[in-house]
Amino acid sequence: MVEPQSPEPLSPLEPEFHVGSHGNFEHGVEIILTETRPGSIVQLAAWPGEEKKLIAAIRTVTGLALPDGAGGGVSDGVKSVFGFAPGKFTVADEAEGLAAAFAKVVTPAIGTVTDLSHGRTAIRIAGPKAEWVLAKFFAIDFSLPAFPVGAGRSTAHHDVFAQIQRTSADQFDIYVFRSFARSFWKALCHASEEVGYEVQ
Amino acid sequence: MLITCPYCGPRDVIEFTYQGDGNRERPDPASQNFEAWNAYVYDRLNPAGDHNEIWQHSGGCRTHLKVVRNTLTHEISSVAFMRGDHGRGDHGSAARRKAEDKS
Ligand SMILES: [Zn+2]
Fold first, then answer.
1. Which end of chain B is more exposed for a tag (fewer CB within 10 A), N or C?
2. CATH class name, domain A40-115
3. Do A155 and B59 make contact, defined as CB atoms within 8 angstroms?
4. Which pLDDT tens digit goes with each residue over A65-74?
5. What interface predicted TM-score (ipTM) does this complex get?
6. Four-way CATH pick for A19-37+119-199: 3.60.10.10, 3.30.1360.120, 3.40.50.740, 3.40.50.2300
């Protein structure tokens, strides 16, 4: 669980996080980059055959109903969930305390709860060129029919593991290891320069 | 080369890690049968054609997969989850038997 900190939790992006417009933005900003800073991020895994019970537990804790299918997911803007592997799900919440809430309903017979609140950094890329910038990083299909809103994908950029959830038609939330987050962020900024980006 | 992960869909081979020949039969860890261990460690069919392989989608969903890859063309004719299959992969067993019959 994330311990309450004051006044603001530290971000690994801090030294490279420069609010404002950057790159080739004279023709307009086509990319918005932000850090979403969820209060909790957890990974849930069901034992074989227990997937349905785990999906029910996700609904109990978050109120979110997971759609069927590999990589299915949903977000209500505050809480998000998506499948990233068979029987495994990432859940994020603006509020703290997700791991404790899941520990009450995900019994040892159903599966496991891993608190990644300190282990991952969540970066949001939005705007009309979001697909285009991400296509430079990841060899997966970012088009809307192949990667619908809410869905999640597990992939890697230069061996840096990344989980990506599409949270709207032109918006993606990327979960990367906290220790790699700053270098990934810098790369994302460089890749966004040619279309103009704004850090918020 | 693309491998179509049954969970993630088609992905570049760079996301996968080769976990070895899928035809091997691992002896019981307590086994004292040195011939069986020798066969597990050293004996390979080395076919020119379809080959049973184990791959892990290490840069994706991280599941282990049984893959049939053609060693001449790199064509991948089947990919399935390993889960539920302990010991020697039964994938492409016809090709394995064919290779064994030749030897
Ligand atoms: Zn996969």
1. C
2. alpha beta
3. yes
4. 999 889 999 9
5. 0.89
6. 3.30.1360.120
